[in-house]
Amino acid sequence: MIKRLITVTRNVTLAVCTIFTLAACQSAPDPVALNPQVDTTASGASIALNVRDQRAHNHVLRLEHSDQTADFATADPSLASLISDRVAKRWALDDTSGTQLQVTIEEAVFVVKQGSLRHDTEHRVRLQATLTTADGEVEKTFSGSRESNGPLRADVKKIEGEFAALLASVLNDLVNDDTLNQHIVGEAE
């Protein structure tokens, strides 16, 4: 009886160690390469731009597995530098400009819930824009969300493209916003 208990205990210990070893060998996702296409033309106006990432976590991808574990991946380049680059396609950046635009990243993540036979994905982006001019301050929030699902394992590269399209949509709303553009162009005149 004692020999059998020791054998069972040894087998359970070996199984648990094997599971932890395999879990440790699981590779984390590569950094997410985003390339949102912003549809805008240069306005000729200049702004001083500050992009701040206020999210609690800096990852853009959370890949949740059916065994209650998760992998995380950040954006490369960083989300703040990516947004700054896209905003610069609309307005020239000049740190001495009297028109200051602060873009705060409040949320930017896509969550993939990977099951054994299907996956579900949620995409969420929320940016807060605060424009300060000699005439005052304007605040606007730009956001978007999407959901998708599919059979079997998630194609992370495809889902990255979906997230990039959502981010592009939110950035297009920001850079082409009538209120922001009227205040920025009004200051340039």
UniProtKB/TrEMBL annotation:
Q: Where is the signal peptide?
A: 1-23
Could you tell me the keywords of this UniProt record? Signal
InterPro entries recorded: Uncharacterised_YajG
Name the source's superkingdom. Answer: Bacteria
- What are the top taxonomic ranks of the organism? Bacteria, Pseudomonadati, Pseudomonadota, Gammaproteobacteria, Alteromonadales
Its source organism is Aliidiomarina soli
Establish whether keyword Signal is in the entry.
Answer: yes
| Record protein name field | ABC-type transport auxiliary lipoprotein component domain-containing protein
Q: Which Pfam families match?
A: Lipoprotein_16
